[in-house]
Amino acid sequence: MTAQNPFTDFETLGRQVWEAWSRQWAGPAAPPAANASLPGVEGLKSYLDWMQQTAAMAGQGGHVSPPSPFAGWTMPGMGTPPMGLDALRSLLGTPAFGPGREQQAQQQALMRALLDHQQANARYQELLARAQAQGTQRVQRKLAEPGFQVDSLKAMYDLWVDALEDAYAEIALSDEFREAYAAQGNTQMRVRQLQQQQVEQWCRDAGLPTRSEVATLGQRLQELRRDVRRMQAAKEAVAATSAAAKAVKTAKRRASAKPAGSTMDRPATRAATRRAPRKPR
Amino acid sequence: MHTPWPADPTRILEEVAAFQRKLAAGAVNLQSLAEPGYAGTPRELVYREDKLTLWRMRAEHPPTSRTPLLIVYALVNTVWMTDLQTDRSLVRNLLAQGEDVYLIDWGYPDGADRWLTLEDYIDGYLDRCVDVVRAQAGVAAIDLLGICQGGAFSLCYAALHREKVRNLITMVTPVDYHTPDNMLSHWARDIDVDLFVDTLGNIPAALMNWVYLTLKPVRLLQQKYVNLVQILDNPRELENFLRMERWIFDSPDQAGEAFREFVKAFFQANKLVRGGLSIGGKPVELANITQPVLNIYAEQDHLVPPDASRALGHHIGSGDYTELAFKGGHIGIYVSGRAQREVPPAIHRWLREHG
To answer: Could you give the ipTM of this predicted complex?
Structure first.
């Protein structure tokens, strides 16, 4: 956005609103009632400025950047490098050698990842800007409809939100956005991964345990827990089978000891199954 | 020339004055409010394992239902959406209908849980919870109520353990992840989930929330808070708003391996409907679900579009399949006034018909 564009400071205005609100709500120690009107007026002023800018934007076009889906998931040093570094890419592909080969290769990989992320982020931001522009056009069209009337500042704001969301949804469901979205996140994770690898190397050099080592321990422990569960289950299954077999055997024994027919037969059966007396030694 | 703006400055001034009044009153109200709690329906600890807790929810009167109903919530966010506040509680309303309600609180995974897989969750934790409930109730099979991702888990479980599930209810459950209007799934398609999990370990809740918020960025990150001004002078509504904010942002991280498997198999490969899904090496086929199924979906669901849920009817083996459309969104199905009136009685009625 340029200085000629009256909406250049739209984001700044938005920030001012939230800052004003933050001040309004900040700190439990703030006098609850005595100062209530003062910050209220301040917050109100910012809010109205913001609303006015929003309304004006609807008529003249302008952009406000929705946040990146992965904003906040950066690490120190992960900022977007300045434009014009694409020429570095081929240089960064130069094979490393010598005693510092590994470190140099890691640094080169990190720099390449940063460039990739810069590119992916630019593409993603471009699509967001497109959604914003199309949202604004929707508002313009709506406002130009004969007889269409906005009743209040709030209604104007709601109209703008609806239009922007509709335009965003249309673009967000496109294949182009899907690829850009994934590339934005994937390249950011790649940068983070390479940074973590460097941090781990420093930790190993300093004799400190690393995240990878802890993760490996966790993985082995979980596998062990699964093995124990399986063994317990197998043991219980064997015990259950054994108990069932025993029950069947007992039932069979009882059945054979209790043939169908009169109870008068019992003594004879008992006699038949009685053990023969042992021979004297 | 057509001017869409209100010409009357008095009206604008009135709007400004009303805004100022609400803002001033809101400052006082906000500072006087404590951290809003959930409904806190009385409950009894039944089983605990690692971070998981199995609760039996208690009503004023003993349940009339002989078969327990186990609520299986998603790993994303917490199960307390079903018991958010006293007058907006699916759990309370089900208890009032006479259901014997149990629910699983998955807890908050940390680094020690990073290697938990879908097998650990579905064939491990969930299976043991079902066994505990069956044993406590003295029944061979129970009723399952799966919500969102928990619904997908319940489908897998019912397919794997048919003998332990009498009736299955799914709420706002994605089944076909590749419907054209599914924005979340659309975005997930090209995400390198291996890279994410290998780098982050567990997937942080804040990242998950951020992705959900960017499905409707201006509405959820800005308009919602602008609209907050309208209720700042109403302590009760303000408390409800803050309670919902707590629920939205007080959410657990996702165990890395389970997340990896879920995104790959469900979001990317759509295996639940395309086939080829296996949990712990055991094939999961929806055709194996032969129990009666009640599928409840929300007509304005931006996270799980209706078509993603309704696909279930085409893939299960059960001949007893019922759909219930709710006029509302993914969250409104639990907390709206309409939901309180319509959803629990419908669930109860259906369960009684299938008793």
So the answer is: 0.91
